[in-house]
Amino acid sequence: MPSNKSVSEEPITQFVNCRILKDHQLQREDLWVREGKILNPEKLFFDEEGYADHQVDCESKILAPGFIDVQINGGYGVDFSQGCDVRGGVALVSKRLLEHGVTSFCPTLVTSPPHIYHKVLPEMEVHDGGAEGAGVLGVHLEGPFISREKRGAHPEHCLRSFQQGSLTDLLEVYGSLDNVSIVTLAPELPGSPTVIQELVKMGVTVSLGHSVADLSQAEQAVQQGATFITHLFNAMLPFHHRDPGIVGLLTSDQLPPNCTVFYGMIADGIHTNPAALRIAHRAHPSGLVLVTDAITAMGLPPGHHTLGQQHIQIDGLHAYVAGTNTLCGSIATMDMCVRHFRKASGCSVEAALEAASLHPAQLLGISQHKGTLDYGSDADFVLLDDSLHVKATYIGGEEVWRK
Amino acid sequence: MKLIILDDYDKASEWAAKYIRNRIIQFNPGPERFFTLGLPTGGTPLGCYKKLIEYFKNGEISFKYIKTFNMDEYVGIPRDHPESYHSFMWNNFFKHIDIRAENAHILDGNAADLQVECDAFEEKIRAAGGIQLFVGGIGPDGHIAFNEPGSSLSSRTRVKTLALDTILANARFFDGDLSKVPTMALTVGVGTVMDAREVMILITGAHKAFALYKAIEEGINHMWTVSAFQQHPQTLFVCDEDATLELRVKTVKYFKGMMHVHNELVKPLTPVQKGNAKVVEMSEKPYSD
């Protein structure tokens, strides 16, 4: 008998025998899915007199919202900022991210010359995930409107300032902002308040990073609408008690009411000392967003690799410029970051999982349909064992990866 | 009447659940032969529901061919309000078992015409062939379902105005705000429950002791509506020690002395008994007083 004709004839799947992360708690509940969305079974029962067509036994595993990585530069030999075979590169990374529980992400471009943006951005369309890979939520543009002093590995000759102090500057460099979800900029650059306001008006999330801004400049940027801090502690002024700099935003009392500032954390145990991770987490737990900031070498086996012009030596979670002790970026995967974060911070399983799902979704303003298991949300989720190793990944209620 | 006295709440809950389990197995329900069960809400039956869920998960029983009829529901609170009896039944029982929604009947307290809804409920019970086993709880004032003191002992399903005591007692579930507490409910009548083939009343806790005394040791009285079941041919009261505190020693001793007999009713059924179940007709009484 086809179920629930009154509302939909699509089949209903009931995931049973699981602990689902809902309302900030792991609960022994079933999860019901129809047409790729999470269904309210009570409404189904009483309003539609419906029932599940299939049951999937989750073998007592944790069922949590799929991870969202808002800062990832590439992986598996792909560098999104290279500009060659963009679609193929994104497709490869999307596919491989599934095994790490990532169901959607923001491919990130480091500071690049304008022709790269003009070529790459139109080819990185926002799209839903599926069997072919994790969904693309929009590009994260990290630079080129950043501080010369705190540029890190970004190429100096490509850096820009706001010449006209408006969107025109951005459009000149980027070409279009159609596929863009986050822009990282340095708020101390002259003209940035107007630019921040205009970006926010367009629905683009503004992140502060690669910056020498003091706290009052950072607070002003938040008042203009900035809501994110790019890899906290990295590429910004170190915390000082008389001027805490951007880090001070975590406990600032000069923020607009009901405004949550989120901050990205590379919790790989290398790029942020566990003590610093704990300081940030304890000061502002609800704003912590786990990011991988992964580079080309993520997902490659240990040993020597040649990536474009670069020679890289991978040793455990360290990626060095070959023959030196210079770290050349993060190669930790999102599931590793979740595990490390939990261990280093001593936080609950729930908090660790939400830092990789709920918080990034809230940051991007998409928590109505991603990052939670609330009724009506997209059925993007992961099955994990108690040590938080990913066992299976689902997008739109369909299994897209299984160990 | 049978009075089943167990040591504590958990044992009473388990006994009741086993009794229901055995009745279902003996009835041998199927697509052409639904078992009909009347069900209560509230704190008392929770333990019994937990056990029934356990028996379902063990594969001992299925609810696929069972029709349930709930005793009552508030008027005027949304169906998905956490204190509605729809929510209670969903969260504490239905979502854990394999019952089909079309077989789970709960009065709709938001129906356009409440009396029509009540009449339709009676009709649904009739159409299902009556209720095989009605499980109920009682209030400290001896009310069964929302048949508050003074309700007619031959009442049918209808709209009831709640007693002030009940409203005050319920305020804790509605943020302590009296204005949010429903003042009316739809409830099956005493007569509706009396029509069931068997009735099982769960009574636990010292605060229900006086009601149990009124129910079984004094006369039938509409001020203690549960006392009406003295006239029912097949009634069980399942209680814990605390609930017997107001009873005579003689009463308690008599029924405790019968426990070895009554415990036979909840023993796991042998395959032969299960096989025989097929020939048990709805009118037959496998056990009697």
Automatic annotation (TrEMBL), chain A:
Belongs to the metallo-dependent hydrolases superfamily. NagA family. It comes from Paramormyrops kingsleyae. Zn(2+) binds at residues 142, 210, 231. Pathway: Amino-sugar metabolism; N-acetylneuraminate degradation. This is N-acetylglucosamine-6-phosphate deacetylase. The active site is at 293 (proton donor/acceptor). Its EC number is 3.5.1.25. Gene3D superfamilies: Metal-dependent hydrolases, Urease, subunit C, domain 1. Pfam families: Amidohydro_1. It catalyses: N-acetyl-D-glucosamine 6-phosphate + H2O = D-glucosamine 6-phosphate + acetate. Keywords: Carbohydrate metabolism, Hydrolase, Metal-binding. The lineage of its organism: Eukaryota, Metazoa, Chordata, Craniata, Vertebrata. NCBIfam families: nagA. It is an enzyme of class 3 (hydrolase). One of its GO terms (molecular function) is metal ion binding. Its cofactor is a divalent metal cation.
Automatic annotation (TrEMBL), chain B:
Its EC number is 3.5.99.6. One of its GO terms (molecular function) is glucosamine-6-phosphate deaminase activity. It is an enzyme of class 3 (hydrolase). GO terms for biological process: carbohydrate metabolic process; glucosamine catabolic process; N-acetylglucosamine catabolic process; N-acetylneuraminate catabolic process. One of its GO terms (cellular component) is cytoplasm. It comes from the Eukaryota. It catalyses: alpha-D-glucosamine 6-phosphate + H2O = beta-D-fructose 6-phosphate + NH4(+). InterPro entries: Glc/Gal-6P_isomerase, Glucosamine6P_isomerase, Glucosamine6P_isomerase_CS, NagB/RpiA_transferase-like. The keyword Transport does not apply. Keywords: Carbohydrate metabolism, Cytoplasm, Hydrolase, Phosphoprotein. It is found in: Cytoplasm. Residues 12-232 form the Glucosamine/galactosamine-6-phosphate isomerase domain. Catalyzes the reversible conversion of alpha-D-glucosamine 6-phosphate (GlcN-6P) into beta-D-fructose 6-phosphate (Fru-6P) and ammonium ion, a regulatory reaction step in de novo uridine diphosphate-N-acetyl-alpha-D-glucosamine (UDP-GlcNAc) biosynthesis via hexosamine pathway. Deamination is coupled to aldo-keto isomerization mediating the metabolic flux from UDP-GlcNAc toward Fru-6P. At high ammonium level can drive amination and isomerization of Fru-6P toward hexosamines and UDP-GlcNAc synthesis. HAMAP family: GlcN6P_deamin. Belongs to the glucosamine/galactosamine-6-phosphate isomerase family. Homohexamer. PANTHER family: GLUCOSAMINE-6-PHOSPHATE ISOMERASE, GLUCOSAMINE-6-PHOSPHATE ISOMERASE 1. This is Glucosamine-6-phosphate isomerase. It comes from Paramormyrops kingsleyae.
